[in-house]
Specification:
The modification 4-aspartylphosphate is found at residue 912. Helices cover 41% and strands 21% of the residues. Helix 4 (123-142) runs parallel beside helix 7 and helix 13 runs antiparallel to helix 14 (555-589). The protein folds into 6 domains: 6-121, Beta-Lactamase, CATH 3.30.450; 127-324, Beta-Lactamase; 371-485, 2-Layer Sandwich (Beta-Lactamase), CATH 3.30.450.20; 495-569, Helix Hairpins, CATH 1.10.287; 593-803 and 822-843, Histidine kinase-like ATPase, C-terminal domain (Heat Shock Protein 90, 2-Layer Sandwich), CATH 3.30.565; 846-990, Response regulator (Rossmann fold), CATH 3.40.50. The protein contains 28 helices and 29 strands.
Length: 992
């Protein structure tokens, strides 16, 4: 049903829940769907007709109803009463009568997409009314008969109109077996010993030359004669009972099954009944005649049909008896018979109505979705429906064998709720009033979550409502009531309460997180403002004109300015780290992070991370070293395939965490271990207990981009000599917004997201993370699943996804932001220690290396302050800079450049995305379009400059035609090498 239209699902669900027969005819194929109450109406067609086209499921009546459904599909509402339809829902076609209401189902476009059908079969009602009316007319038609010959004529005349119910009729009169006896002069035969014979008095629907319609036969002949209808007539004479003949068992002569086009729907006959007409209506009575009635071929010969036929035969018998009585007796007898017939008919009708009402109630109870029950005053079951048994988890056989009643309750009711159940029963019996009770069962409740398809379990809860019925003495005689399964409601209430608690806890954690983030963001801002003021005050105090190009600074003033600039850079890095953590968390929550393969050497990646923070470690006098474990070298690992950006992010989080906690210790050492294995690490090597993987975690799948190398597990451990962690603090790690303790935040700061993100990224790459802390020595260990790199003949460099590129640039920003006057931490082999160079050596180093050639750069930026600052820094880096305020000016400048055959040199464009007049995306599309049309010579290198750091925004920029995307904030010393690399790459592609 998941692929069905919403409107179809709503209609079908509404139809299935209805206790009355309902159908839905859907779509152009007129697919037929119905509910359970409608199933019995279709007989053996169920369930084969469910879900089939109407023309296939009901081929025999499709031509009769197709026009109705066409009108309904055209938008008409149709009501039909007692519509005759011939259906094949059993062994033979059957006449049926229906009340229909066809309601169009209007789709969103205003056209009918289906038809909702409310139907009710009224076949029994129509047949009953038809038979009662016919019986009345038949009796009135027989009343004037005065002789037996007149009676047989009137019987034939009275049965003539019953074309459906009696397709054929044969009337035999019983007369004395004398050679000169004539039917016209016969009276009621005497009881003398004269032999009798049957003479055919007339027929309806039977041809005169039909061999089955024997003209005359003697009643003294042998009973096994097979001459036409004679044998069944002799059997009826012998037993004085009706004899039913059938073509299936061969009792109905084949000659009498011939179809008559004007009677019985033109079908062949399947059944007939032979009725003896006697004088007293018993075995010892005298036989007056025999009726042979062909039965309706489209109606089963059931109890009602049989009763009606016997009633007609009884009317003939009574009329025959009246003919032989004196006039006064005839009138009295007629009046008594009329009264008796009316009473008998009324009794039959009342009995049938009672039986139908009882059957209707039983069907309703059994099909009700609510449990219904009736107990006596002692609690013994009188009647329960199927829904009740389903709710308590018993079969009908098990329930019927449960005695006494209290033992059956012990078997099902939860022990903790037994006192509530028995208390409600006691209150009902003693106070004689209705009660309601909620209680649990022993058996568990199971269901399926429709949104996920997962199984959910809980306790089975029932709501019982009971009402006592009192006897004449005012005592409780029976208890009846209803049972409702409220397990889903109770489960929802419990889940709602749990989620409310979780929401309150999440709200508390979020508030704490906001407090921490606000504090972490405000502190660097204060330092940035103060450092900037310090630069201005230093220059003012020296009495130097700030705008003087030949200005010289004293050594102390230069030191203060450099120190203030370093503080500004470090504070900006700190703020950026907080923002990056929040952005990564947002991507994790939205499942937007993807793992993208990249070829990398793991030790070099670790060295890169250590290089980023060497100045910070040098400032804190921290010794850092990298150790390659034997397990790594034994596997002869060189290049592997993994997501370098995600791995680097975890390493940076653990490294900055180690720096934060080690900088105040007496011993300040950080060691990073790199190992590998074929088997999944257990943590025993570093005595680490890995955090169990959450059920919602994703299992990575290797696509073709990962190559065909063997699977490996890369393990990295970061050990520090910080203050260590207690057991309580360890339990809080790796949770969202959580730090080891409130003191941790006050002393060391941070957002509480780093370790949680590290755990998420490790699990996202098929690994785990853990921690151990013993004696002031803390080790964080994690592993990820990788593949060994296997070169191919058509191997190309593997490019990381756009979010990764953005992250690498941000990480590079951290590296370049280190103060130039601090030492670098050296990365060495195991057993060696990093030695820091002197501050004088670092101070002489240049922040930005000279470029091999001048870059001609066009900056397209609408913010004049950013435009001015970027231009100044690029000029200091040796670039020749041009500026444009929006995309339109960019295109105009490009037409004057060497790319369009003009004289103005241009190497690369730095293009902002958000600008008035013409934004960056529109501009780059124009540039690439002109390239394709040949209006621009070669490929124009373009780097997008944007503050939009989300992966989908970066992807949109790349798809529009950008060569690279750089996210703000960034630093010029890291941007210039990327610019040069892009220009060189573009030049190499265009060279022949």
């Amino acid at each position: 049903m998941e692929s069905w239209p919403i409107q179809l699902r709503q209609c079908v669900l509404s139809t299935m829940k209805s206790p009355h027969p309902r159908c839905v005819i859907w779509g152009e194929e007129q697919t037929f769907i119905y509910n359970e109450p409608a199933a019995p109406m279709f007989g053996t067609k169920h369930p084969g007709c469910l879900g089939r086209p109407l023309a296939v499921a009901f081929a025999e009546l499709y031509e009769q109803v197709n026009a109705l459904f066409v009108a309904a599909f055209a938008g008409q509402m149709i009501n039909l009463y007692r519509l005759p339809l011939t259906m094949e829902r059993g062994a033979m076609p059957e006449e049926t009568y229906w009340d229909f209401t066809l309601l169009p189902i209007v789709g969103p476009d205003g056209w009918s997409v289906g038809v909702s059908e409310e139907l009710m079969e009224c076949t029994q009602i129509v047949r009953g009314e038809r038979r009662r009316s016919f019986a009345h007319k038949f009796r009135e038609h027989l009343r004037p008969a005065s002789t037996m010959s007149d009676l047989w004529s009137r019987v034939l005349g009275g049965l003539e109109p019953a074309t459906e119910d009696f397709p054929s009729v044969m009337v035999y009169a019983v007369v004395d077996d004398e050679p000169d006896s004539r039917l016209e002069s016969t009276k009621v035969s005497s009881s003398s010993g004269n032999t009798k014979k049957c003479v055919l008095a007339g027929t309806i629907g039977v041809a005169s030359d039909n061999v089955g319609a024997v003209q005359t036969f003697g009643l003294s002949e042998h009973l096994e004669t097979d001459v036409g209808i004679a044998n069944p007539c002799l059997q009826a004479w012998e037993t004085r009972k009706a004899v039913v003949l059938s073509s299936k068992d061969g009792t109905l002569p084949a000659s009498l099954t011939t179809a008559n086009a004007k009677r019985g729907y033109g079908d062949e006959l399947h059944q007939a009944v032979v009725l003896p007409i006697t004088s007293l209506g018993n075995v010892n009575s005298e036989l007056l005649g025999i009726l042979v009635l062909g039965l309706n071929p489209r109606c089963p010969y059931d109890q009602e049909y049989s009763a009606w036929v016997l009633l007609l035969a009884e009317l003939v018998e009574k009329t025959a008896v009246l003919i032989s009585l004196p006039e006064e007796q005839r009138r009295a007898k007629q009046s008594a018979d009329d009264t008796n017939s009316a009473l008998v008919q009324r009794l039959r009708i009342t009995t049938l109505q009672a039986e139908r009402s009882d059957a209707r109630f039983v069907r309703m109870a059994n099909s009700a979705p609510t449990g219904m029950y009736m107990f006596d005053h002692e609690g013994t079951s009188i009647h329960v429906n199927d829904a009740y048994l389903d709710m308590i988890g018993q079969t009908r056989e098990q329930h019927d064998t449960m005695t006494p009643a209290t033992s059956s309750w012990d078997e099902t009711v939860h022990p903790d709720d037994m006192h509530l159940f028995l208390g409600a029963w006691k209150s009902l019996v003693e106070q004689k009033g209705p009660v309601t009770c909620e209680y649990r069962l022993k058996r568990p409740w199971r269901s399926t979550d429709p949104s996920t398809g997962h199984e959910i379990t809980g306790e089975t809860w029932l709501l019982a409502s009971a009402v006592p019925e009192l006897d004449d003495a005012g005592e409780v005689s029976t208890v009846q009531g209803w049972l409702t399964d409220i397990s889903h409601r109770k489960f929802s209430e419990k889940l709602l309460a749990q989620r409310l608690d979780d929401a309150l806890e999440h709200k508390r954690q979020t508030e704490n997180f906001i407090d921490m983030v606000s504090h972490e963001m405000r502190n660097p801002l204060s330092a940035i403002l103060q450092s900037a003021d310090s630069v201005i005050v230093t220059l003012d105090a020296a009495g130097m004109p700030i705008l003087h190009e030949a200005m010289t600074l004293s050594h102390d003033a230069a030191e203060e300015i450099v120190d203030a600039a370093q503080t500004i850079i470090l504070c900006g890095q700190h703020q950026k780290r907080i923002v990056d953590d929040i952005l990564t968390l947002s991507k994790l929550d939205a499942s937007l992070l993807v793992i993208t393969p990249d070829k990398v050497q793991p030790p070099e990646l670790v060295k890169r991370a250590m290089k980023m923070y060497e100045s910070e470690m040098a400032r804190a006098d921290i010794t850092a070293k990298l150790c390659i474990e034997p397990s790594y070298t034994e596997l002869d690992i060189d290049w592997v395939i993994l997501d370098s950006s995600r791995l680097l992010q975890v390493i940076i989080n653990l490294l900055t965490n180690a720096i934060k906690f080690t900088q105040y210790s007496d011993t300040r050492e950080i060691t990073i271990w790199v190992g590998a294995s074929y088997e999944k690490p257990t943590g025993k090597h570093h005595k680490v207990a890995f955090i169990p993987v959450r059920q919602s975690g994703q299992t990575p799948t290797f696509s073709a981009a990962w190559g065909t190398g063997e699977d490996l597990f890369l393990q990295i451990a970061v050990t520090d000599t910080g203050r260590g962690l207690t057991e309580d603090e360890t339990r809080l790690l790796f949770q969202r917004f959580a730090q080891a303790s409130p003191k941790t935040y006050k002393q060391y700061g941070g957002s509480g997201l780093g370790l949680f993100i590290s755990r998420e990224l490790s699990e996202l790459q098929g690994g785990q993370i853990g921690v151990s802390s013993v004696g002031g020595k803390t080790t964080f260990t994690f592993f990820v699943k990788v593949k060994r790199f296997v070169p191919t003949t058509c191997d190309h460099p593997i490019r990381a996804p756009l979010p990764t590129a953005a992250y690498q640039l941000a990480a590079a920003t951290d590296q370049a932001s280190k103060p130039p006057n601090h030492a670098e931490a050296m990365v060495q082999d195991p057993g060696t220690t990093a030695q820091a160079p002197t501050p004088e050596t670092v101070r002489k180093a240049s922040v930005v290396e000279d470029l091999k050639g001048k870059l001609h750069v066009l900056i397209v930026e609408d913010n004049h302050i950013n435009q001015k600052v970027m231009s100044q820094q690029l000029r200091r880096a040796g670039c020749i800079v041009h500026v444009a305020n929006h995309g339109g000016e960019c295109l105009s400048f490009l037409e004057k450049s060497t790319f369009c055959g003009a004289s103005v040199p241009l190497s690369i464009i730095l293009l902002d995305l958000e600008m008035p007049t013409m934004d960056g995306l529109t501009c780059i599309r124009h540039i690439r379009k002109r390239q394709a049309e040949g209006k621009i010579n070669g490929h124009v290198p373009v780097i997008a400059i944007t503050a939009n750091a989300r992966s989908e925004q970066i992807s949109t920029a790349m798809e529009a035609g950008m060569d690279r995307v750089v996210t703000k904030p960034f630093r010029i010393p890291e941007l210039v090498p990327q610019m040069q690399a892009l220009v060189e790459e573009t030049s190499s592609r265009t060279e022949p």
